[in-house]
Amino acid sequence: MQPKKSARSTQEPRWLRYSLIGIALAFLLSFLFLPLVFVFVQALAKGVDTYLDALKEPDAWSAIRLTLITAAIAVPFNLVFGVAASWAIARFEFKGKAFLVSLIDLPFAVSPVICGLIYILLFGSHGWIGPWLQDHDIKIVFAIPGIVLATVFVTFPFVARELIPLMQAQGKDEEEAAISLGASGFQTFWRVTLPNVKWGLIYGVILCNARAMGEFGAVSVVSGHIRGETNTMPLHIEILYNEYQQAAAFAVASLLALLALVTLVLKSVVEWRLRKELAAQDELPPDGLPATPRTAHA
Amino acid sequence: MSIDIQNISKRFGPFVALDNINLSLPTGELTALLGPSGCGKTTLLRIIAGMESADQGQVLFSGNDATHLHTRDRQVGFVFQHYALFRHMTVFENVAFGLRVKPRKERPSDAEIRQKVTHLLQLVQLDWLADRYPSQLSGGQRQRIALARALAVEPKVLLLDEPFGALDTKVRKELRRWLRHLHDEVHITSVFVTHDQEEALEVADRVVVLNKGKIEQIGTPDEVYSHPATPFVYQFLGNVNVFHSRIHGSWAEIAKQEHQGEAVAFVRPHDIEITRDAGQGALQGTVRFVHPIGPVVRVELAHQSETIEVELSRERQQQLDLRVGEVTYFRPRQVQVFEDVQDFVI
Amino acid sequence: MSKPHSILPGFRLSLGYTILYLSLIVLIPLSAIFFKTALMSWPDFWALVTSPRVVASYKVTFGTSLVAALINCLFGLVVAWSLTRYQFVGKRFFDALVDLPFALPTAVAGITLSSLYSVNGWVGQYLEPHGIKVAYTPTGIVVALTFIGLPFVVRTLQPVLEDLEAEVEEAAACLGATRWQTFRRVIFPAILPALLTGFTLAFARAIGEYGSVIFIAGNMPMISEITPLLIVAKLEQYDYSGATALALVMLVFSFVLLFTINGLQWWASRRGQRGA
Q: What is the mean pLDDT of residues C93-121?
């Protein structure tokens, strides 16, 4: 009848399809890809030697070390919390559950600056327990503990909010089966629950780690910016940039950009595994809605 | 092991799932808990397994109180509706799980486990699937693996929640027969939950019909089908024609029973005889439809404002040669009348 | 809280730990904001949060966040649509790229965008002759916030677009609807809750954003100074009550947005059920 019309009734005409793809790709390339390329180009703009020198500088080293330490403390803390919270929420019925779930999301809704501020209000020299801490010579704010605390706060929900929907979708049949076959609570958790949520757990940890290493606002407020002592990598970048050391700033930034790339690759791999597992579970009649792996939301 | 259920009640908020259930299940029998969805049958099964706790009442295993016994210690094998196979373990490891998690002292050696699991897989005729993962199995195969897994710990009771619910019709029929044979072989006290009357009648030694948290009838498949104790059982087990005595006075007469006030008569479609001539007590009806369905022919008759469903054998239809629009006569061979069932909703 | 019956162990332990940890890390520290503000008198508080520089910062923060979220809705829809509906070379790469703003630390994004859009930058040099200044203006803030917010819209829309049943669109086509009519009357209403949720998420994130904005904003009082920066500025002057008062205003607004998001999701799930 109308030979020009596309074969499928539910497809847009070709010109529209191509323009939409064109707009989408142009937007992604200019807004996301270009900045990513720019980081590496700037980092290497003054040659490899300058690049390596910037990374070898003692202050840069100490910033890298502090960032790693912070993540190494914050991530396990939130991992344990995420597992405990998802066990309570996805495996039991109790009053106020929906409220508890929204409380867990709370840190995503709070500005990073406020995350830092609250710890100053608590532990600062004019804070609630600041004077007591001073008397006992304990430093929290403008020291490493404050940085870790602020990081724990901003990365608080990551693992929990990946695990809760996953465990809810999987249902508790397998755990009940394990118990009915004589397994103890620990055996059930270790042999049935953990292997089942493995990929969701890794997914949450990857996201949590990326945020922990890259957090700027909250850490900036509590760190006190003491060079070589309480500067994390993002804070070190800020200082270098403000001192017009472009190449050095982008050199350190390139490390974080590399971390972002690794995160994206790992995330894609894990997402693919998760999808596969949920698809396999789809074949087994589902007890809940198979949740598509979702990225963390603020 | 025999199971006794005494005065068991269970509510979920305002919803009464089980209302004072009393039931005893003798050793070695295969019992079906039959009822529509929401009648409480799965809740009852989970209470027997110890996965749900009753609000009141007791569960006795071999006469001993097991009400507060943990599932782990009840020695029940539970087969879940959706099988609940461990998705990250092979078929072999799934079946071996119950043996591997035993306390060190009771745990069999690896060789013993291997032997036992192989034997069980042979019993369910799936030993060639030992290295597969659950996602690589068909529904019927998963079901049999779930059963083998439950049997591995040598339970005293086997509980099955809608064992054939998620399977397609053909596999379902095969598995039914297979379960019956398996039970004849292992002779373990077994209870299964189903909403499919055909399944309950075909597989079980005894059928417990549940409705709205109460037991309607307990009996052999033949008893519940041929002599339903309540209108609900009559309706739930097979097709039925319903006649109200007020409207169809003559039917009560046919039943040769005197009824005061409201009464309802039930007649199964295959218990109605169609004749060409008006014999004694026969009613007149006009043929509306004639549908041959497999071995039977379903005929719809219009009688006053009602539609009456009749099932004939193919031979009978060949003799009668009923045509749409014809006027014929019909008469029940067997009627069951229930009185005082005003609240009965069809 | 009474123990719900379940044969699975660990309810009290896991819930107890969850609540304890939540209280220690999140609830008690957050409550400090409310207690600290409660020490201020109402007139002081009101004067502080409505002073001209502060009000100007609200306008900048909310205005740029709104524009950025709207841009993200438009382009996010096109991106999500292209990624779910069409096949093209490098699709997996572009799909993964959408998450870059989640993975890239905000400080890195900040210095990068600022350098890109400065007068001598890769992009800025082409805009400058046309009289378009991006870096160190509110436009720069919009650019940074658009970068930050894009994944929220795309990732909220994608699963909904994937789950749309092809049959519904085919039915609309069979009933004689044009492709545009099908989109407007069948597809758009179905994805509207997700689009609104994505918008709100991007908006909420943009309002609190700090790291990526401060480098590109220029931070001129009354013109391109955002509220979070003002909080930091007050903190650096040891004006704790001033910082806390501003934080409270932002916090209240964040909570309102959080409730809006929950409400939207509830609405979406209800609509889903009704349709099913």
A: 92
Q: Is A192 on the interface with C (CB under 8 A)?
A: no
pLDDT > 70? residue A296: no
Q: Which of C28, C39, C100 to mutate to test the interface with A (most CBs of A within 10 A)?
A: C100
Distance from CA of A122 to the nearest CA of C (A): 7
pLDDT in tens, A113-146: 999 999 999 988 878 888 888 888 888 888 899 9
DSSP string, chain C: -PPPP-SS--HHHHHHHHHHHHIIIIIHHHHHHHHHHHTS-HHHHHHHHTSHHHHHHHHHHHHHHHHHHHHHHHHHHHHHHHHHH---TTHHHHHHHTTHHHHS-HHHHHHHHHHHHSTTSTTHHHHGGGT---TTSHHHHHHHHHHHHHHHHHHHHHHHHHHS-HHHHHHHHHTT--HHHHIIIIIHHHHHHHHHHHHHHHHHHHHH--HHHHHHH---TTTS--HHHHHHHHHHTT-HHHHHHHHHHHHHHHHHHHHHHHHHHHHHHHHHHHH-
Question: Which chain A residue has the Cα nearest residue B135?
Answer: A280
Contacts of B53 in chain C (CB under 8 A): 5
Distance from the B48 Cα atom to the nearest Cα atom in chain C, whole angstroms: 13
- ipTM reported for the complex, 2 dp: 0.88
- Closest approach of chain A CAs to the CA of B327, in angstroms? 50
Q: For the segment A206-228, what is each residue's pLDDT rounded down to a tens digit?
A: 999 999 999 999 999 998 777 77
CA B320 – CA B292 distance, rounded (Å): 14
Measured between alpha carbons, how far is A237 from A223 in angstroms, rounded to an integer? Answer: 14
Q: What is the 8-class DSSP label of residue A155?
A: T
Output the CA torsion sign for C271, C272, C273, C275: positive
Question: How many residues belong to chain A?
Answer: 298
For residue B257, pLDDT beyond 60: no
Residues 133-162 of B with CB under 8 A from C: none
